[in-house]
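[Automated response] Your request has been received and processed.

Submitted sequence:
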Amino acid sequence: MGCLVSTPKDTVGNRRRPANIGEVSVYVPGLRIPKPVDFSQSLGDHLSKSLVERISALRTRIVVMAGQEGPTITRTRRKTATQHGGSTLADLQQALEDYLPVLLGLMKDGSQLQHKVQFVWVNQEDDAEETAMSNAWYEVLSILHLMAMLSFLQANLLLLPRTSADGYQPKVTEESRRASIDIFIKAAGYLDCAVRHVHPQLPTELKRNLPVDLAEGVLRALCLQALGQGVDIQLGMAIDSTKATLAVKRRLACEMVKYWQQAQDNIMNLPLLNGWGEKHRLFVKWKYVEAKAAAYYYHGLILDEGNTEKFHGMAVAALQAADEYFKESKKACDAFHAAPPLSRNPPLWGTMKYLSEKIPKDTSSKVRINRDLYSHEKIMETAPTLPDFALALKPDEYQLPPVDPSWNMEHMNKGQTGSNQLRNDRR
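Generated structure:
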């Protein structure tokens, strides 16, 4: 059902590990890079020369582009031009989309061709340098993962503040924010498809031997990360809107907490041992704590609108919790950026720029007024439970594309060849 080869990291020097990945609004836990495959050797006796050459050319294009750009596109670059005038990210994404329908022909009608080719990819989060599997579903899983990571990179570029034309403080435009939400939903769709439709196709033995980059928990965490960051952008836009109520902002903040909590739950016990993996875990922890600061802040403001002493006391407890979580989030942020590969925080903007000013100020004033009623030692113990809202943002309903029509021609040609052979035999 497909053999497995994992190469320890100390035997191969192909893992892409830049020392510094620049400004990070969206963390991308490394790009898995495909290595060359000889399709003619494994498929030459089973498929026409033209189809073998086509699938080989499509994958070679990805290998070359990812190999050249992998070490650099994980670093912060606001615009990367190619000789064709398009962006590197878009070109590589298109190459993956072109390859996938042809690749899926290997599994057409349960064909055993899916086990003929050994696909090799360089890992990033796994302790093994690279993993090779003779199963085309492993290749599909790797392609979907790479498509999602390229989407994350694209969102990161959109969400890095730029100096505006008027020379004021760097900011992220509303257009970029809206576009990033669409990208997050699309990335979540790739990952959701990988978990629900591709993972089940793999034999149990191969699932156990997948690199941690493709472990179900990591894929689920990445999907939830995409949705959590999408809600973060929605909250920032609600903060900027005069029409958004406190209830709307609290709901978004509480949903964000649930996304990040579930993301953390999915990767907590996975062996993310190396630099990329540990940094991924720190990113999720940072964003989870940051989300809790926002949720407790808005919950506290709504509780403070109550008329009873009980509601007022609960509001103070919630605001104090927000302040504590905000302080913790700054430490978690520093720990994330200090972990290799090094990164740095872009200028504050959006949700956290607003809350970094409001949380300390509002918490201080409320606690000062009620210092005789609530001691600092008991505030966190008495912090009210956050409301539980259903998660509204969902992954895009991405489906694997239909098998490329060239496979239908392949079967027609084989049928014609078989008929001709039969006629020749009868003669």
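Summary generated for your ticket: The first strand starts at residue 4 and ends at 8. The chain has 13 helices and six strands.
If you did not submit this request, please reply to this message.
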